[in-house]
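<instruction>
Derive C-alpha cells from the sequence
<data>
Labelled lines for chain and fold
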Amino acid sequence: MTLENTTKSLSSSTTGRWLGGVAFTFFIALLGYLLAMVPGFDRVGQLACAIIIAVIYRQFFGYPEAIRSGIAFSSKRLLRAAIILYGLKLNIDTVLHDGLGLLVRDAGVIIFAICLTIWLAKILKANKMISLLLGVGTGVCGAAAIAAVAPIVKSKDEDTAIGVGIIALMGTIFAIGYTILRPFLPLSAIDYGVWSGSSLHEVAHVALAAAPAGEDGLAIALLAKLGRVFLLVPLCFIFIYIMKRKNKGTEQTDAKIEFPWFLVGFIILSILGSYVFGHSIPVSDDVMNVVFSMTTWLLTAAMVGLGLNVSLKDLRTKALRPLLAMGITSVCLSVIVYFIV
C-alpha cells in the first residue's frame, strides 16, 4: 500500500511538473503578447518578443529544471501542432491556378537564399547549422520554415531558437524598410506586391510591407508568399534525402532520421482548407481567425521553450557571423528580385 501511494505521489508530481512547464511557456508567451502591444515592440511582433523575454529569463534565473518536461513538450510537440495548423493558411487552389509563374520564381528565390547563405557562412566561418536554418527561413517563410526543417537536420534547440530570433528581427527591419521606400520606388502596386512577397521573410512581414500598396498589391504579395510556403514540403523531403545520403555508412543510421509526420498533417490541413472548409463544409471567418490565433499562440509557446535554451555567451560567439551572412543574402535577394519584377 505504501509503494502504491508512493507511485501515485510520484506520478502526480511528474504530471504537475509537466503541466507547470507547459503553463510557464504560455505565461511567457502572454508576456510576449503584452510587450508586442507597446509602441515600437509592435513592429517586432509577439513571437520575437516572447523569445527575447525567454532568453532574458534564462540569463538571470537559469533554466527551470524542475519543469523541464513541460517546457520540452512545448518546444517539440506544440511546435509540430503549430506547423500542422499553419497548413490552413495555405490555399493550394489559389497557388496552382493563379501563381504558377510566381511558383517558378519562388523556387529560384529559395535556392538562391539557401545556397548564398551557406556559401557566405563558409567564407565567414559562421556556425553552419544556424546559417542553414537562416537560409531556409529567408528563402521560404521565416520561423515556420525553420521550425519544420530543424528536426530533420537535427538542429539543437538553442540553434533553432537563435535562428528564429534572428529571422524575426531582420524580417521586421526589412519590412519597415520596404514601407519607407515604397513612395520613392518607380513600381506599380502589383509589381511592388510581387517584390515584397518574393523577397521578404515571414507572411506577417509581407502583409506589413505590402499594405501601403492597397488591396491588389497586398493580394499579389500574399500570393507570391504562399508559393514559397507551398514549396516548404518538397524542400523538407529534399533535406530528408540529403540527410540519409549524408548518414549512409556512418554510425548515424538511416533509421535515426525521423520522418516528419507533422508535414503530412500540414498537407492534409492545406487540402482541407483549400477544398473542404468553406466549400463542402461551411466555416465562418470568425472560426478560422480563432484557429489562426491558436496557431500563433502554440508557435509562440514553442519558441519560448526553445528560447530558454539560449545562452547569451553562446549567442555572441555563434550568432553574429550567421546574422551577417543572412543579412547580406537578404539585401542581395531584395535587389535581385527588384530588378527582375
